[in-house]
Amino acid sequence: AALTPACRNALAVDGVTPLSVLIWLGALSKHGLRDKPLKRATRQGMADVIDLAERGAAMVSGWPGEFFRALNAHRVQAPGQESLQLLNLALPGLTRRIRKLGDTHWRVRIQATLDAYTAGSIHTRSPIIGRNVQSHEAVNTTVASVARSLRIRTESLSLAIDNLTDDQVKTRHTANGRSRRLMTPEVIQKVHAVLEDRISIKNAARLLGLSAPRIEQLANAKLLIRQAGRLSKRACNTLQRSLMQVCVHGEAPSEAIRFSDTLRFWIPVSRSSEFFEAVLSGELATYSETGANSIHAMLLARERVMAWASARSDQVIEWLSVPDCATRLGIKQEVAYHLVRVGLLHTRQTMINRRVAQVVTMEALQQFERCYESLSKAAMRAGINWRHGVAWACSNNIKFASGPQIDGGRQYFVHIRSLGRNSGRNADHSMTVMK
After folding, report:
1. Shortest CA distance to 226 belongs to which of 194, 207, 201, 195?
2. 424 against 77, higher pLDDT
3. Taking a C-beta distance cutoff of 8 angstroms, is the pair 194, 163 a contact?
4. Which residues have C-beta within 8 Å of that of residue 306, sequence separation ≥ 6?
5. Across residues 162-181, what is the average pLDDT?
């Protein structure tokens, strides 16, 4: 049987196209890559050979679009949730068959067209990668190389990639459980945006003009977004804009105090999130001058803040840090820590921001206030000058609990139950009694 005109034209493409190449292409079009199609074709009759040649001729005339359509038709789809495929899994055995093609010109041409096909797949829902894929920037960019270019650790880059959706990052899971990700320029740009948005707690505190412990409280209350130990810069800016938007632009009350002074004198760290929520909801009115762009330029009514803080302090605070206890007792922090060491002020351990810390419960603080009092306060209440407090305590048989000559403490504390006793001793013998 004679070849059709289409076959004759195909044989003349680019000089001379061997009949074996047409049959090879036709077998690929008809049978795909399974069950050795070329061997099956050689065992059939002349009509089957002509059919394969005509299919190959049609592919050559529509090159490379028809070749791409044949690959799409016979490509093995990725199993499960995989969105990234190796070339040998997507088109099994194709590269080996190309290498065995006898015509050098068409072997190079088909390989180049296959490389163009895999390069074009990078921007599809199921890209093709692998050792046999032509080397180009989008495919050969690894997580390690991108991390080096961005000057960050690979672990940090992997965490940033995990924040992207599956549609944005194509992934393949290997047999040993590792993940292979395709780092296209678009993905790198999105990852870079994610990394730019992630800031440390210290930088967030500097951005908002707050202390790091207050930033921790706001993050724990979900007022700031925290991911993998980092905060979102965008969320910090959003919080600042939201605070500025609820401000009343106008004349502030005469007794108004600044936002920073409010936090410093009236709002403990443990109540930071509650205070910010009260401001955002309008429960605590804030005032700002026109054109102000910082939360610390806001003003609040002093009496309103005092009423709000006193009305809810007993309901909210369950424990205090040792420095907060010192503030409440009116003593120095070193004195408070000494009371903890000698066992007069009881503490317990708790987790605060993933760290173990010593805190004083309100019950322990109230117990201390019921049992002990500083000697200076007791003497002042009795009308005694604080310089003569030790002599007064000894002359009245007041029992000491802590102090410089008792346990090495910096300040004297006495038992409240002994304050009503009066032994009638002379104050001149006070130092002898203490020794």
Report:
1. 201
2. 77
3. yes
4. 266
5. 64
pLDDT-derived band at 138 (thresholds 50, 70, 90) equals: very low
Average pLDDT, the chain: 77
Q: What digits encode the pLDDT tens for the residues 341-397?
A: 999 999 988 876 567 788 888 888 889 988 999 998 889 888 888 888 899 999 999
In angstroms, the CA 187 to CA 202 distance is 28
- Under 8 Å between Cβ of 378 and 414: yes
Task: Identify the residue whose tokens are 């599956």.
Answer: 166
Nearest of 206, 74, 163, 180 to residue 127 by alpha carbon: 180
Instruction: Reduce the secondary structure of the chain to three states and give it as a string.
Output: CCCCHHHHHHHCCCCCCCHHHHHHHHHHHHHCCCCCHHHHHHCCCHHHHHHHHHHHHHHHHCCCHHHHHHHHHHCCCCCCCCCCEEHHHHCCCHHHHHHCCCCHHHHHHHHHHHHHHHHHHCCCCCCEECCCCCCCHHHHCCHHHHHHHHCCCHHHHHHHHHCCCCCCCCEEECCCCCEEECCCHHHHHHHHHHHHHEECHHHHHHHHCCCHHHHHHHHHCCCCCEECCEEEHHHHHHHHHHHHHCCEECCCCCCEEEHHHHHHHCCCHHHHHHHHHHHHHCCCCEEECCCCCCHHHCEEEHHHHHHHHHHHHHHHCCEEEHHHHHHHHCCCHHHHHHHHHCCCCCCEEEEECCEEEEEEEHHHHHHHHHHEEEHHHHHHHCCCCHHHHHHHHHHCCCCEEECCCCCCCCCCEEEHHHCCCCCCCCHHHHHHHHC
pLDDT on residue 399: 92
Query: Residue 408: CA atoms inside 13 Å, Cβ hemisphere, count?
Result: 4
> Which residues lie closer than 8 Å to 342 by C-beta, 6 or more apart?
402, 407, 409
pLDDT in tens, 232-273: 889 998 988 888 888 876 677 777 888 888 888 788 888 888
Which pLDDT value is given to residue 4? 62
In the structure, what pLDDT confidence band is assigned to residue 429 with cuts at 50, 70 and 90? very low
- Contact present, 399 and 415 (Cβ < 8 Å): yes
